[in-house]
Amino acid sequence: MSILLNTKIVLLIIQLVFVVLYFVPAAAFTAEPPDSSLKTELLWPVNAIPALTSSFCEFRARHFHAGIDVKTYGQIGVPCVAVAAGRVTRIKVTPGGYGKAVYLDIGDGRVAVYAHLDRFAPLLTDILHREQEMTAKYSQDIFLEGDQAPLFQPGEIIAYSGRSGTVHPHLHYELRKGWDRTLNPLTNGYAAEDTIPPTPTDLAVTPLDAFSTVENDCQPRLYERLMRHQDGIWRVGEPIGIYGRVGLSLDAYDRANGAENQLSAYRFELFISGQGRWVTQYDEFNYNDTRQIEVERDYRLWRCQKGAYHRLYRVPGNRLDKMVFGDGVITGQDSTDFPIQVRIRVSDAADNQSIVELTFASDRKEDEMRAIVGRPLWSSNGNSRWGTIEVTLLDGFLRLSASPGVAGFRINHNWHLDLITRSVEGLVVGAWKPPADFDGKLNILAVNKNGDIAASVEQKLFPLFPDRMNTAASADGKMTINIPPQAVYDTTYISITPISNYDVKDWIQSVYKVEPLDQPLAAAVNISIKAPSENSPEGWGLYYYNPRKGWIFLDNEDHQGWISASTASWERFGLVRDLDKPRIRIQRPLPGQLIAANQLRIESSVTDSTSGIIAEGLAMKLDGKVLPAEWDAPMRRFIFHPWWNIPPGKHNLEITAVDRVGNRSVQSVAFQVRPY
Length: 676
Prior knowledge:
This protein is mainly beta. The protein folds into five domains: 52-187, Glucose Permease (Domain IIA) (Distorted Sandwich), CATH 2.70.70.10; 199-376, no CATH class; 384-460, Immunoglobulin-like (Sandwich), CATH 2.60.40; 463-577, Chondroitinase Ac, Chain A, domain 3; 583-674, Sandwich (Immunoglobulin-like). Helices cover 7% and strands 44% of the residues. Strands 14, 15, 16, 17, 18, 19, 20, 21, 23, 24, 25, 26, 27 and 28 form a 14-stranded mixed β-sheet that branches. Strands 1, 4, 5, 6, 7, 8, 9, 10, 11, 12, 13 and 22 form a twelve-stranded antiparallel β-sheet that branches. Strand 30 (389-393) and strand 31 form a beta hairpin. It is globular and about 95 Å long.
């Protein structure tokens, strides 16, 4: 009995040693710490209880969130204060983007940026109004130098919060290091109260080449609704079967005290069998790298509306060396490689932490005791469906699937592709990486075990290479794409497919789908579609289709019978005709109204049915004089509040609106001003 007891004690000690070694990695990456040379103490930027509605580096379409959103509790006009002694070196006002913004140089190499403001402090307002009145333009970008730059003391009111350029009232606040780099405020002088650890929600495992699989399939697999166990660890549950090279992506959110908003976590660390293999840490980034969010996050999962998963592995084109560290690729081939123990640590800026654990097993080994969990990203069809063979364009390779009974695929009559397996959805699956001399012509035959052809498909693909100019054209010759060098991150393939069911006579035509929709672009490409006729009527433009918002205007450049536009993503593109004029409704002043000069407010709504309104197409004149009126794009309001004396008597107000394809409307109203 004593021998048995001693043996148990020894085993327990060994287990404890293993746990210590596993949870204290021997070779973990260490991310670069925040710049400790920046010592200036900073005040909270608004006179309100500190709380956040958005955090640094949250996902935005095509860019990182460059600061923090400070809660103003739904109010407009909350005082914004100088966070330190400094000079205002820039005042910028635009209809969209940051709206009304002010830049405070605090003298230690950092610039504090306040955006979406309602108005500025009186001294700054005077500077802005002088420029607006002189140029008769609302939009301004004013740089101030030396003694011309107003000096503000810590705590002095510099502006008032608002919602300019956006919909919901809040203060967007940034700390910049010079003009080209933005810093995480929560690691550079601020610490909102936060005792809540991040919440991991979903995990994705992605095969990284044509020779790798997750649960015997070459497509990503999702493990949603991670469960938190009694020991505080979040777990997937059953071991996950893999083969070859795979990458992990994790969706998670954080919360801070005082607000229910879901924020982004600060740090993601990946450990494989106790060894540090990856760190993502959001301390800073260069504005030139803001589009890198589409490779730092899993763009495919975002386009499939699964969430903004954080990649824990490096993909081609990721140059965020100050944000991500390591390669993160997990490799398992031989039986001796398994099991692979994985641990992910997610932290917020206050160092609250959550842990995710999972185990990888071999999916090439029969194991009736291992339950298959999770689900494939695509259950029965991929990005394209051609006949009875489904083809999905993935990262430099093709996934082929067909009905049960198919024994293999023959490609271009020369290349034979064996099956990977029968997927859990009942389909027969294969993966194929095109050779270097692949010209894009694709003929696929699905054959049964007797060699008989069960299905076939022909398709034209266009290989795209990062280091050269690439072109592609539809089979009917009515659509062309010019892809400049460095517009794609890695060698990839696209297809162009006409879609006739979108056509509506004299309204929508020449619609094409360019796939894969879930592959990011590193730079804009040019799309051209043949105009309806040489003398086609006006109103046509090039649009893309958003399933939630409908047709979105891109441009209507006319190039000798072709309508062209730039695009930053692969979409469904088509020509849409807009013949509707913008609608102008003047709300204040009313026709014939008698109004005191100090109460004059000009307010109108301007809407358009199809192509949309832009600031450059708007004009407001009072008695023939152009006014620097504000276009509130999110609310579709065109407004002006005079800051000079309007003389008594009769006046005429005229508002002009031109939409993106040239349709024009004019509305006017006569009113009277009385002395006050």
